[in-house]
Design goal:
alpha/beta, 14 helices, 17% strand
Length: 412
């Protein structure tokens, strides 16, 4: 599995003078095209899903495909929520498998933007997930003509940016220096002086939204002044649309047209990766990044008191309550197949990251369920947290077992 910590990935890009593409995907052909491009380039990549596109696909279904693609990739991958509107969407995205999130409260006054972003950072950090904030306003909507959704371009102010980063604790900042979302007539004029001052003041990976329509030299200038992540969608969508139209002219069934769509997305993605300097860096990025590993919180137990219906009710309540805690990806309850098993029941609770262990243990919903429902009837229990490993298993231990490495009883 090549899913890696997004902080490490973007810090590597920032300190080594290149940018990682965050490519918005809207279906399986986009996912395949983006991943094929990254593999061909041997480059790190961010697969991004924008909340503004959720009307076009089932988010959880597409996320399952993205996570599967990341798990089988040989290159470093991060999965990012783009333009999340608020805390509920962020929690949903983390549960589905995103290991980076963006909260976009840039349309609000500075104080309100800070308040909303700070709440997201608090929750995401408890899950080990880095947060991208935005300050300033980039007009337009992804994949549409910017003239139809102009708003008023608001450049990022350097002093406000310093305050915003200090008070929110975001890991990356999306800045407005003259780009637009979607299509825009004419070449955007970028304020590189402003970008240089932002980079000097913040010394952190900067993000550009609205990459479509920029020239090669403009991209190089952005990267030279601290941009480590470039969001990209509209040009991919346009290339895909042209491929579909070309397929219609050539005839054939729907399935026969999909490879051309995937190829169009792959070619444009590959062009960007090479232009932005990520090609050939997969090995060094993998060496510099911590793997993003889930944790399995496993409990096996016996009950004293409730009949099977009471146990089933307790399990159902636990699935309902515990699955809503941020950072919990899945709650599975079980019953032993063998009648003579030493433990009759089990919980398997998947955390998105090891940071969730302490967050979950102290969360009031977990404490209330454990104290009110579970612990009074399940005194006989074993609880262990396992890091989920991918690929080759670690070498076997040949020395004496550590006292902390064996079976132990703990609070759930």
């Amino acid at each position: 599995m090549a899913l890696v910590d997004l902080r490490d990935m973007l810090n590597h890009a920032y300190h080594n003078g290149y940018a990682v593409g965050a490519f918005d995907v809207v279906d399986l052909e986009f996912v395949a095209g983006v991943m094929e491009a990254a593999e061909r380039c041997q480059a790190p990549v961010i697969v991004s899903l924008a909340e503004s596109h959720f009307e076009y696909f089932d988010f959880e279904l597409l996320m399952a495909a993205v996570v599967a693609a990341a798990r089988r990739a040989s290159v470093p991958v991060a999965i990012h929520l783009d333009h999340g509107a608020g805390l509920d969407t962020v929690v949903r995205a983390i549960r589905a498998g995103c290991n980076g999130v963006m909260v976009d409260a840039s349309e609000h006054p500075l104080a309100e933007n800070i308040r909303r972003t700070r709440a997201v950072v608090k929750t995401a950090r408890a899950c080990g997930v880095p947060v991208e904030g935005e300050l300033g306003y980039v007009p337009g909507v992804e994949g549409k003509d910017a003239e139809r959704h102009p708003g008023e371009l608001a450049y990022t102010d350097v002093e406000e940016a310093r305050r915003y980063v200090d008070e929110t604790g975001v890991d990356f900042l999306a800045v407005s220096v003259g780009t637009v979302h979607g299509r825009f007539r004419g070449a955007p004029r970028l304020d590189f002086d402003r970008l240089a001052r932002l980079n000097e003041a913040l010394a952190m990976p900067l993000v550009i939204h609205g990459g479509t329509g920029l020239g090669d030299e403009q991209f190089r200038g952005l990267i030279a002044h601290g941009v480590a992540k470039i969001n990209y969608y509209t040009a991919l969508a346009d290339a895909a649309a042209r491929a579909v139209q070309d397929g219609a002219r050539r005839g054939g069934g729907y399935a026969e047209r999909l490879p051309r769509l995937r190829q169009a997305v792959r070619e444009e993605t590959e062009r960007c990766i090479r232009l932005w300097g990520g090609a050939g860096r997969a090995r060094e990025v993998l060496a510099a990044c911590r793997p993003w590993s889930e944790v399995a919180h496993v409990i096996v137990y016996n009950v004293d008191g409730p009949d099977p219906d009471g146990v089933a009710a307790m399990m159902a309540e636990g699935r309902r309550v515990l699955s809503a805690i941020p950072g919990v990806r899945e709650v599975v309850t079980g019953r032993a197949v063998s009648e003579d098993a030493p433990y009759r029941y089990s919980w398997l609770i998947r955390f998105c990251h090891r940071a969730v262990i302490e967050h979950y243990r102290a969360h009031p919903d977990h404490v209330a369920f454990a104290d009110g429902w579970f612990r009074p009837v399940a005194a006989d229990r074993i609880t262990i947290d396992f890091e989920c490993l991918e690929g080759d298993p670690p070498p076997a231990q040949t020395g004496p077992r550590s006292p902390s490495g064996g079976r132990g009883r703990s609070r759930s």
